[in-house]
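User: Hey, my collaborator sent me this sequence without any context and asked if I could get a structure. I don't really work with proteins. Can you help?
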Amino acid sequence: MNRRLIIIAITAVLVLVVVGYLYTQGYFQNLKWQTGTMILAAIAGPYKLVSNWVKGGGETNDILKRNEAMRADEKKHRIEYDAQINAKQKQIDDLDKKINDLNAKVIEVDQKRAVVSQQVNTMSAPELQQKGKELFGS
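Assistant: No problem. I've predicted the 3D structure and written it out in structure-token form, which is a compact way to encode the shape of the chain:
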């Protein structure tokens, strides 16, 4: 921690020396706020880089830890969702099988109906009366 404070103090002194030198040379006499903002933005990047080096990349490690935790959560949720998807897919497959079985029965019944209809069309009126008596009695 002492090393960090020393580096921050040295950096602050260097910044004050540079600003003082620029001021004595007259660089700040005609300075507008837009130019000052651009200069501060240009200084911010190197400052952040140096401060991260001084801190030992603590923010980077925090971000990596958070991302690791998020990846673990995503993996857990992915496993849960995959299980749910597989269960739904099994239900869909079962329903498809039932639908195919019912369609096969409907086709079979339609074929029987067509055969019976053809037989009925070829029968004469007395044969139809006889067949009706056999089926329904009387």
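In plain terms: Residues 35 and 41 are 10 Å apart (CA to CA). You can pass these tokens on to your collaborator as they are.
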